[in-house]
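Hi, here's the filled form for the chain we discussed.

Project: internal
Contact: R.S.
Residues: 410
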Amino acid sequence: MLPAIKVLCACWIIGLFVENRIAFAQSVSNIEAPQTWQNLSSSLNTSTNGTNDLSFGLKYLVFPQISSKVTEIQNILLAHITSGSFFPFKSRLRSTFNGVEFWIVYATVAEIVAIARLLGQDAWVVRSTSRFEPQGTLSLNTTKGRSKSIQHQWSPSWDLSYVSWAPDVPFHNVHSYAFEEDVMQDTYIYVIEDGVDATHHEFTSMLNPRITWMFPPWGSKTSTDDAPGRWSSHGTCVASKAAGSNYGVAKDTNLVVLKATYDVEDVIWALVTAHKHISTNNRQRRAVVLFTYATDGSAAQDPEMVRIREIMGKLHDLDATIVVPSGNYARFTSQVSTVPAVWGTSDFPLIVVGGVQRTGFSSEISQGSSSDLAAFAPGENVLCATAGNGFSFLTGTSAASGMVDLPHCI
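And the returned structure, exactly as it came back:
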């Protein structure tokens, strides 16, 4: 049985800090990795039935690898993209590359293969796909509901009771979730998700109900939860566990939603934007970046993933706390095997969070152990908000991550 969550710093900090390095584990998903131009051609032609029709929405990312080649890469794109278009995404974190993080390119198969051949080792060309996925699954049953939140929230969901479980007290004697109303008013949780239902009573009845929204230049600009298919309401749920008035841990914090899909370019944009916003507004040591997506750990050395790690390092330089899930693939391997969780070490202090059941034992799907995770929190049948003013139950290390969000305690 794992240790119960200690009631420290207004009940929200969880112990078990990581000291050892976490080895890269074997692949646990079928997410396609980037390819060399030689087999890029055959795979793309197969995926588009051998046509160059732009109606297939062929979107690519070009990552510069050599700073002195940025202008040359730009000129190659300009010369060889005739049927589509391209534009750069820039950040001040990439000053040695003239600010270019990557180019978003719309092109035919023939054009992109020719460009990849010309660029060689100067740039990394990859098809824009959803490389990441959330680490939590909502149950299908949803309903409406609301209750009042006070300093002692009586008869809360089991996960909030678990967070308030004091040492040497039987769990059946825990009848409330205890919290301090003012402790999080000067802290900011940056939630990277494909939207949040800001009209849900969980957020409109927060002590500080105003949500700050940020959108990528190429994405949706609506303040809604747009997560597709089985991930529907994932962002609303995770945000409600972090800060909701009824289901949340930090009920008086400030939410900042960075609306990002599961594509690499959206993730890089979100991290860069969080860095700029934290720095510009002097929120060092008062900011948590909650990133509950994950991808196959075998991709950790791909250039775009290396860049994500570098940007996370820049966030650490601002004393921002980055909270990530340990992964939901214990049926394949008990070791942590997903990006970004595999990067968590004492030298790269991600707060990697595993999930526990109501009994206190590790969830069956949660990866990692007490020796290689920073924290554990409830991660099975966790009550949370869903789009449309309803609620449901989330299972996964996403749910656990949403409950670990107090920067000055971590």
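Let me know if anything looks off before we file it.
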